[in-house]
Amino acid sequence: xxxxxxxxxxxxxxxxxxxxxxxxxxxxxxxxxxxxxxxxxxxxxxxxxxxxxxxxxxxxxxxxxxxxxxxxxxxxxxxxxxxxxxxxxxxxxxxxxxxxxxxxxxxxxxxxxxxxxxxxxxxxxxxxxxxxxxxxxxxxxxxxxxxxxxxxxxxxxxxxxxxxxxxxxxxxxxxxxxxxxxxxxxxxxxxxxxxxxxxxxxxxxxxxxxxxxxxxxxxxxxxxxxxxxxxxxxxxxxxxxxxxxxxxxxxxxxxxxxxxxxxxxxxxxxxxxxxxxxxxxxxxxxxxxxxxxxxxxxxxxxxxxxxxxxxxxxxxxxxxxxxxxxxxxxxxxxxxxxxxxxxxxxxxxxxxxxxxxxxxxxxxxxxx
Length: 368
Ligand code: PEP
Ligand code: MN
Fold this sequence. Notes:
Low-confidence stretches: none
Structural class: alpha/beta
Bound molecules: phosphoenolpyruvate, manganese (II) ion
Shape: elongated
Number of strands: 8
Radius of gyration: 24 Å
Helix content: 40-55%
Mean pLDDT: 95
Oligomer: single chain
Largest sheet: 8 strands, parallel, barrel
Strand order of the largest sheet: 1-2-3-4-5-6-7-8
Number of helices: 15
């Protein structure tokens, strides 16, 4: 996809050079709850108010949102505070109702972006909007629950092809099996790769859904800003403990103001002589790494030929295990992270195996 003609996702005067900040409760629960949160957030300078009206719940019986009637509360927030209002849409009728209620910003949730039929259904409605409305509508696409960058890019493409030019992406972490400190582990390399591929698409981070706990919002937000994300979407509720959804990860508007105040922005782009020199060093080291990897791969192919001639299997678990163990120990002694070393070695080993299998059975093509 060649995305080069995007418009600024929000009017320049809203955030200037600073990060895009969207905040509001996970769910719109009642008119009073929505307005209380909106008033407090607006007082603290928040310009875009989020609230979920239709809530995708993992199991039935949870709070599934108020639905269409809650859109009127968002309209009230808009007229009373002047904030832009944002909500999640998952199908055609959600989108039609949101548009009729004057919602300014929509986002496609993580369960929906994993489903190309649903995204296309939404894109098809967007494509039929009058030009003016399509031009003013900002659309964010959350990453799909599964760590599939193609699906994420594909969903963005569908929305772009519908003529939307105020386009953004939200990183909210990925579903994983088992217990982790994060509710949805961030797998930062995926949003970083998205940004590499689609640098024009604004990328914001949702630390509330990644962390799943209040305490993790500040450190995750700081990490995101350090990685040059364009902004944050954070869940905020006046009485978080009694929220009808995602109670553990919501913070009061006051707590949110404290978190935002504590964050350090790193948006400078100065490129001094010393930074350039360091980058040149990195370039040279990377050249050496590539050279070393190529040499290693040549030797590995020679081993493949030897194994073929002697009828040996390509993978020898004992050898792989010893090699992994030793290299990881060496790396740790040199102050490197064990997990990082394992990942690098596993990738190198996988490529060696692929090469050796190709040598042993050239007729059986091995998929990468
Ligand atoms: C939400 O933003 O409230 C939400 C449901 O998020 P996600 O789609 O990331 O789970
Ligand atoms: Mn939520």
